[in-house]
UniProtKB/TrEMBL annotation:
Segments forming domain Major facilitator superfamily (MFS) profile: 1-501
Entry's Gene Ontology cellular component terms: membrane
Presence of keyword Ligase: no
Residues that span the membrane, as ranges: 37-58, 65-84, 127-145, 151-168, 188-205, 217-236, 257-276, 296-318, 325-344, 350-371, 392-412, 478-496
Taxonomic superkingdom: Bacteria
Designated name of the protein: MFS transporter
Organism, scientific name: Trinickia violacea
Gene Ontology molecular function, alphabetical: transmembrane transporter activity
Length: 509
């Protein structure tokens, strides 16, 4: 329960921030694209923090590290709540991501380290259920708080999460012996290289739309520097001269670990990108825009469904095996994203999205335990932490990639759809002129406007509707993209080794 509350704080915040992002734009005086940086910097900080957290815990002790990350996450939540502008909030979100990395890694790692093998799956199931319920609580509570009070107050429940987790873990989490060997040494070159690569990537993502991407000389330089740093990081981690690598890449020789790492990239993209755009669409583009509370009520369908069916996944994975469970999950994802793609219009009623959200939950519930269990299937006990760190690093890389690619995709597709729509609503088009004349006359007769004002207002209405339809088509394309990610993940599924069939007992004659 203590681990569930600690990591539930991170799940609560992730879903809450995604929900209230439209409200931040007005308060902070920034555009939607700029507000989305709060998600991308957090994902990149999580990516950096995952491998570093294993090393740091080895230095300060597992229990002390876990308690410290809880305190740090709660403190950075207060920093986010008090941030006067975007720059300061980005700073606190980076620190929050680094602290959150320790939580998302160590709730899983702690179970593998503390629990005997037969008890790991039930323990993971219980904590996962708490995490899904935390996501549902975040969606419901943050929506209500935002509508009735202020979005800055959504961070306050983290103090309750932190207090409960600290009390339980301080009393019941055992003090483990300090590790020996490479984990207590420091891979400073590895830390520096991965930090350079991530900072370069973050600047490119944040400034790309403003500075014309690779049309900008300094972004091209950053791309080269980031790529070189990443290649050097991988080479250094695999080098025999590195006595304390952040990531034990030798484990990738195990087919179970390799397949889980590759599928983990897709898993991260699915987690971060699948329903990333739905709250923003419901809040800003739907014909009858939804409040934060209403949007949270719609979105919590997936979290509550996942929490309800997660206990049954232990038996399902044991019966059908890891590979078939992943295949079932990916089929559910593809179906969910295609239904979203089909349903997404400005006039779609909110309750219609319940079906694809339930399908999405039917993807998450088996996918995460099936992929995660494959990572440690055949790893020795003394390599479990390295295996978890490797899997979570690849998964968080996919999460960062998913948010970044969707942000870029939506911007480009919106521009494309806008230009195509404008080709059909030109003033030399007879249908367009007839609509403008009819709407202008209506506004003049019933709106109390002059003919000039009516014509100007009808032109403005046409431009606004064109922009809204273009954005809607771009969001629909985002769901089609995530369906394609699911298809691509199915193509690499043969990497996953088949589950061994236990020998049948020999019956006597």
């Amino acid at each position: 329960m203590g681990l569930g509350l600690a990591t539930g704080m991170e799940f609560y915040t992730f879903d809450s921030m995604n929900l209230v992002l439209p409200d931040l734009t007005g308060s902070l005086g920034v555009s939607s694209d700029e507000a989305s940086w709060l998600l991308t910097v957090y994902s990149c900080a999580l990516f950096l923090g995952v491998p570093v957290s294993i090393w740091l815990a080895g230095h300060v002790g597992y229990k002390r590290f876990l308690l410290a990350t809880i305190v740090a996450y709660a403190a950075t939540s207060i920093g986010c709540a008090l941030s006067p502008g975007l720059d300061s909030m980005l700073f606190w979100r980076v620190l929050q991501g680094l602290a959150g990395a320790g939580l998302v890694v160590w709730w899983r790692a702690s179970i593998y380290v503390l629990m005997p093998k037969p008890q790991r799956s039930p323990s993971l199931m219980r904590v996962s259920t708490v995490l899904y319920l935390s996501s549902a609580a975040g969606l419901l509570a943050s929506g209500y708080i935002t509508d009735h009070y202020h979005w800055r107050l959504i961070f306050l429940p983290n103090l309750l999460y932190a207090a409960g987790a600290l009390w339980l873990l301080a009393r019941h989490f055992p003090t483990l012996p300090p590790p020996t060997g490479r984990v207590v040494e420091t891979d400073w070159p590895g830390i520096a290289l991965i930090a350079i690569a991530l900072v370069s990537l973050q600047v490119i993502l944040n400034r790309g739309e403003i500075d014309d991407w690779f049309g900008s000389a300094h972004l091209r330089v950053l791309a080269l520097v980031g790529t070189a740093a990443f290649i050097l990081f991988v080479a250094w981690q695999a080098s025999s001269a590195n006595r304390a690598p952040l990531l034990c890449l030798d484990l990738l020789r195990d087919r179970n670990v390799l397949s889980s790492a590759v599928i983990g990239v897709f898993t991260g993209m699915i987690l971060s990108g699948s329903v990333f755009v739905l709250p923003e669409f419901l809040r800003n583009l739907a014909e009858h825009t939804y409040s934060a509370t209403q949007t949270g009520q719609i979105m919590c369908v997936y979290a509550l469904t996942a929490a309800a069916i997660r206990p049954a996944m232990v038996g399902l994975i044991a019966r059908v095996g890891q590979r078939k469970a992943i295949a079932i999950a990916l089929v559910m994802l593809i179906a969910s994203m295609l239904v979203f793609h089909r349903l997404l219009t400005t006039g779609t009623p909110g309750p219609y999205f319940a079906l694809p959200l339930v399908l999405y939950a039917c993807c998450l519930a088996p996918l995460l335990p099936a992929v995660g269990s494959g990572t440690v299937a055949r790893i020795e006990q003394n390599k479990l932490l390295d295996g978890v760190s490797l899997y979570m690093t690849f998964r968080q890389f996919g999460a960062s990639l998913g948010v970044a690619l969707l942000t870029i995709l939506i911007a480009h597709r919106e521009t494309l759809h806008s230009s195509r729509l404008l080709d059909h609503v030109r003033l030399d088009n007879a249908v367009t002129r007839e609509w403008l004349s009819s709407m202008g006359g209506t506004l003049t007769r019933h709106g109390g406007q002059t003919p000039f004002e009516g014509a100007h207002a009808s032109m403005r209405m046409l431009a606004e509707e064109t922009a809204r339809q273009a954005a809607t088509l771009a969001y629909a394309d985002a769901f089609a993209f995530m369906a394609a990610v699911g298809v691509l993940a199915l193509c690499v599924l043969p990497l996953v080794p088949p589950t061994p069939v236990p020998p049948k007992p020999v019956q006597g004659k």
